[in-house]
Amino acid sequence: MQSGSMVFTQMNRVIFGHPAAQTISQEADRLGARRVFVLASRTINSKTDEVEKVRKALGDRFAGVCDYMPAHSPRDAVVSCASAARDAGCDLLVTIGGGSVTDGGKVVTICLEHDLKHPDDLEPFRSVVENGKRVIPEFRAPKVRQIAVPTTLSAGEFNARGGVTDTRTKLKQSFMHPGIVPESVIFDPAVTVHTPEWLWLSSGIRAVDHSVETLLSIDANDYTDGTSLQALRLLAKGLPAVKARSGDLDARLRCMIAAWMSMVGIVSGTRLGASHAIGHILGGSANVPHGYTSCVMLPYVLDYNVTANGERQKEVTTAMGRPGEAAADVLDHFIRDLGMPRRLREVDVREDDLPRLAKNCMLDDWTYSNPRKISTPDQVMEIFRAAY
């Protein structure tokens, strides 16, 4: 008999298929916000009119914009953005961009609530892994909430967890609290046409990775199985459709909804496995884009785990329209057909750096929840050698 629990976040709503700027204005009205500060990707702010649309929709409620949030959300960028938002009197934060902007925004709200002004001030708020288990500090939830307008498929907007990189140690660290999840998420596929193809497609593979590792999780259950399988069906069709015709807004929206569904297990407590654990480390410690980490690692992790869940992996291939084939092979071909990298060397990871990265993987709790047990860096190295 199945057993477990589902713990949900403090997100209020997801709004899809409506123009982002007008919807942001409506959400500001609903929340009574008077000073709305925008954190946007630099491309969105400097090369499109999306922020200008928001400025016009908000009128005198528009408090300012920050467009400096590099990949993997460095601590100094988070604190700098928080200082700008604080000086502007921010009472509602809007993020428009990919996963780094979204995650950075979550931690900006922590900085605003606790008056954090220096990168080191974040130290007491980060979670740590001790003896394979994550220890999460308790702290007051932010009063300034976030509205997220995602432009990729990484789906971090649904997670009450912000990943921020300490550039001195080259480690990505997690800041976790139910109250840092965005108040609302707005899916406007028209905004995503500005996203570079490689980023859209690779973040889509990140969503595939969410779905696969949720389906194969040691915490799998009928509820999360359903959302994971449907997400895989949508992504298997939607990602190639967008690659074939970048202006297909219907396919883009279906991919966004699939990415949302891929997160149901994660946000309700499902532990994932080595593909995600390694991905966290490759991002923070080797500067590999998150989507690329899944493109490279997921098929090799499936191969590594086949002795533990080979029968279960058959459900992945059926959902993706390739029943009877090996899951690792199906994902390998799917990722290659999208033009994405498949080897660690292709994403500029040095072979002599692999031992350090394998050691760092032991700092991530999802390493320890991999379906085939991993308890030493040598076991991670086995996966790395296959992937190099």
SSE string? EHEHHEHEHEEEEEEHHHHHHHHH
Per CATH, the class of the largest domain reads Mainly Alpha
Flag low-confidence runs: none
Distance between the termini: 41 Å
| Residue share in helix | 40-55%
> Would you identify the CATH architecture of the largest domain?
Up-down Bundle
Largest sheet: 6 strands, parallel
Total of DSSP H or I helical runs spanning 4+ residues = 14
Strand residues, percent: 5-15%
What does this structure look like?
This protein is α/β, with parallel strands linked by helices. It has helices at 20-31, 42-47, 50-58, 75-87, 99-114, 197-215, 222-244, 249-262, 264-267, 274-286, 290-319, 327-337, 354-361, 377-387, and strands spanning 13-16, 36-40, 62-66, 92-97, 128-130, 133-135, 145-150, 161-166, 171-176, 184-187. The chain folds into two domains: 13-191, Rossmann fold, CATH 3.40.50; 197-387, Dehydroquinate synthase-like - alpha domain (Dehydroquinate synthase-like, alpha domain, Up-down Bundle), CATH 1.20.1090. It contains 14 helices and ten strands. Strand 5 (128-130) and strand 6 form a beta hairpin. Helix 11 packs across helix 12. The longest helix is centred in the C-terminal third of the chain and has 30 residues, at 290-319. The model has no long low-confidence stretch (mean pLDDT 96).
Question: Which secondary structure elements does this structure contain, and how are they paired or packed?
Answer:
Blueprint: E1 13-16, H1 20-31, E2 36-40, H2 42-47, H3 50-58, E3 62-66, H4 75-87, E4 92-97, H5 99-114, E5 128-130, E6 133-135, E7 145-150, E8 161-166, E9 171-176, E10 184-187, H6 197-215, H7 222-244, H8 249-262, H9 264-267, H10 274-286, H11 290-319, H12 327-337, H13 354-361, H14 377-387
Parallel strand pairs: 1-10, 2-3, 2-4, 4-7, 7-10
Antiparallel strand pairs: 5-6, 8-9
